[in-house]
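Section 3.1 - Work completed
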Amino acid sequence: MNTSRKYIIIALLLLLGAFSLSAQVTKRALVIGIDIYKPENASGSNSSRGTWTNLDGCVNDALSIKATLISKYGFTENNITFLANDKATKNDIINSLKNLIATSKKGDIVFIYYAGHGSQIKNVSSQESDGKDETMVPADAYTGTSDIRDKELNELFYQLAEKGVILTIIYDSCHSGSIGRGLAEKEPKSRYLQPVANAQVDDPSTPHNLIEKNVLIISAAQDFETAKEQVDEQNNPHGAFTFAFLQALKTLPANSPAIKIFESIRAVVKYNGKSQEPVFEGNETRRNQSIIGTPRETISNTTTLAVLKNESKDNITLQGGYISGVNENCILQKIYEKDTVELQIVAVNGANSSAAKIIKGNFSLVKAGDMFEVTKWTFSGQSSLKIYIPSGSFDLTSLADVASKIYNRLKSNEKINIVSDLASANNIYTIYFNGESWILHKPGGDTIKLGKIPAGNFVKQIPDGSNVFVSLPAFKDLKNLLIEFYKTN
C-alpha cells in the first residue's frame, strides 16, 4: 500500500469515527413549570411561610419552551422530562436531575428550564454579602418540604458538567441571578415567595464555578430582584423574561449566538417596562455558540411541527401554535420516499396546537410523530401594537430634573457614548429605576444602587469608551395623557 493511499484510509477512518460520535449525541431536557403552590383542596399548610401566591404563566412558559425545543432545536418528545404543578415536587425535581446525570454522556446536549417561585433562606455560614442562599420553591413546599437551595442545585449541575455534557440552564423566577415574573390591567405578580420564618442553614461550602465548565446560565433577574409576569398577544400569561425569550427566538434565527439572543431578551424586557435585569453567565465560547451550546452551523433555521393526530386529510392536529410563529394558511412540507406531502394550517388553537389539512400528496403516508417543515409563512392580521404602562412614582417635572442630572453627569465624560437603542451595541451599561433606587447595571451582571438621586461619582464606575443606555420610568400622568390623546385622535 503506498503512503498516500494509507493516509487517505486513515483520514476516512477518523472521519467515520467522528461521524459516529456525532451521531450518538443525544439532546435531553428537563422543563419545569409551577403555577399552583397552594392547591384548592389543601386542608392546610405545614409551612411557616406567611402567604402563598399562585402564579399564572409558569406552565404556559414551560409548554412554550418545550414546543420551541422540539420545533426549532430538534429535541424529541421522548427525551424531554416535563414537570408541571403537582408533578414538580422536590423529590421529582431532584430525581429528574439525578436521572439526567445518570443517563447523559459526554458531548450530549442538556437543557434545563424552570419557571416558578424563587425565595431565599438565611445561611449562617454564607460567604455572600447578604448572608442568604437563593432557592427554588417546589410544588410541595406548602406541606413543609424545604426549598431547593442554590448550592444544592449547583452541585447537581456540576456533576452534569463533569460528565462533559453541554449544559444550558434557564431560570424565570425571583432571585434567580445566583442560581444560575406585568399584567396590563393590574399590578404584575412576582415570582417570589417570602422565606420560611426563622429558617436557616449552616453551609460554608463554596459553589463550583460552572462557567469554567462551559455551562451557560441565563436568569430572569438579579439575585436581589423580583421577576414579573405579563400577558402575550393572545392575553395568555407568561413571565416577562420568558415572553421576551420567546419573542427573541421568533425574530432571530435559531442559530443566532447566545449573547445576541440575550441582548434581544434584555431589550424586550426593558421596552415592556420591566425593571428586572436579566443575567447572562457564560464563557466566550458559549457566548458565541447557539443557545443550546452547539456550533451555530449545526442548527438549522427551519421550523418543524410534529403530527399529533391524523384523523382525516382535512383534520390533522399539529404540535405547535403561535409560540412557533405559525398562523392560518402557513404551508408545511414533508418529503417521503415515494411522495411529497404538503399541509396548510387552517386554525391556530393555542400556544402549542394547530389544525391543518392536506393540500398535496397521499394522506395515508402521514403518521403521528412525523415532522413537517414550515415552507411558507403568513402573518396574523391582528393588531401588533400593545402598550403597557408601568406605575410611576415621579411626576413629569421631577423625572425631567433627575433625567437632566443623569445626562449632564454622563456628558461630563466625553469618552462615554450614550446610546438610544439597547440592540445597537454590545457590552452596554444600563441605568434604570427599579421603583426604589436608580441602578447601574454593568455588562458582566454586577449592579450598583445609585439612590433616588444618583450621585455624581457614579460616572467613575463606567470605563472610558463604554456605551450607556438610560431607561427612564413612566411618569405618573402618562397613562391619562395617552388615553386623552387616543380619544381626540
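Second construct:
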Amino acid sequence: MPQASNTEIRYGNVAMALHWLIALLAIGNLCSGLTFAQLMSHDNPWRFTIIQTHKSIGLTILVLSVIRLIWRLMNRVPPLPLEMSAPLKFVARLTHYLFYFLIIAIPLAGWLLVSASPTGIPTMYFGLFPWPNLPFFDGLTRPERAHYTHTFAAAHSYMAFLTIALVLLHVAAALYHQFIRRDNVLRRMWFGTQVRSVPR
C-alpha cells in the first residue's frame, strides 16, 4: 500500500515525488543555463524565451525545495546500510546536505541576480504573471546594481557547476548500490519497488 510518509525502510510517495521532480527540473535548468550562456548569441530570437523559462523553472525549484526541506525535517530518513564504511557514510550524508543547500541557494541566487539587475526586465512566471523582484536593491544606482549582479551571477554559475559534479557523483553512487552492492538504497527511492527489510 503506497503511503505519503517515510518509513524506516523506504521513502514515502511525497519525498519520492519531490526528489524526482526537483531532479528533472534541475537537470533541465542546468542544460538550459549552459545553452544560453555558452551557445546562444544575444541576438538569437529564442534567447529571451529560454531565459524566461529558465527563471520560471528555477523559481519552481526554489518553492519545491523549501517544501522538500520542511517535509524532510518532519519525516525520518531511512538509514544507510549498516555495513557501509564510515567514510562512505560521511560522503553520502555530505552529498545530501550539499544538495539541499544548492537546490535552494542556486535559484535564490538567480532571484537575487534578476532583482539586482539594472536592466529591469521583469520575470514572467511561465508567461502567466510577473514574479516580484526582491526589494533589497530598491534605490541603488545603476553601477551599484551592476556590482551586485556580477556577484550573484558568479555565485549562481559556480554553484551550478558544483551541482553538475554532485549529480554525476550521486548517479554513480546510485548505480554502485544497485548493481555492485545490490542493496535497497536505490529501490527505496523508486515508486512501486519492494523493500522488505531495513538495509543491511
